[in-house]
Amino acid sequence: MSIFHKSHETAGPLAFNDKEAALAIWFLVVTADGVIAPQEEELVIAASNRMQLFRNLHNDDFNDMVAKIRNAIDQGGRDPVFATAVKALPTDLRQPIYALAADLVFADAAVRPDEVDCLRNFQEALEIPDALATQIIEVMRLKNSG
Which of 13, 17, 72, 143 reaches 20 to 30 Å from 66, CA-CA? Predict the structure, then answer.
């Protein structure tokens, strides 16, 4: 069983810290088409390992965050998780988190309309300028094409 298939109970209103918000955005992107490709799961883990935000985070804590997000989606749906993640993500993390989300979309070389729609929704919600989003998408498309 992968970390993306664990589920635990949560209590209280939905709230995310900055780490959970970033992870929720990536999780929503990789699950937009209803499938998590192994490359996507590996990339989420690798992306989190490379970011300063996730340094010094223990594996159990990471897995607990994934479980919290998964449970929130299962209980309340994608929209509340989307809204909570966008609200909780600090401004200085919006562009890097969006870039990594675009990388996830192109990671499995099978870009589906649901994934593109999800990425477009995050672009708008995170207020990523069109020119920057286009550059990011082109770089990620090129990066993942070989």
Answer: 143
What CATH number is given to the structural domain containing 59? 1.10.3680.10
Using CA atoms, how far residue 52 sits from 49, 62, 73, 105, in Å, is: 8, 14, 26, 22
In a domain, 7, yes or no: no
The set of residues, in sequence order, having a beta carbon less than 8 Å from that of 134 and lying 6+ positions away, is none
Q: 3-class SS at 57?
A: coil
**Number of domains comprising the chain:** 1
Contact 100, 30 (CB under 8 A): no
6 to 16, 55, 69, 71, 77: CA distances (angstroms):
18, 22, 10, 8, 16
Name the pTM for this structure.
0.85
Give the other-Cβ count within 10 Å of 44's Cβ: 25
Long-range pairs of 91-97 with CB within 8 A, sequence gap ≥ 24: 93/18, 93/21, 93/22, 93/53, 94/126, 94/127, 94/128, 95/126, 95/128, 95/132, 96/51, 97/21, 97/22, 97/25, 97/26, 97/126
pLDDT for position 12: 61
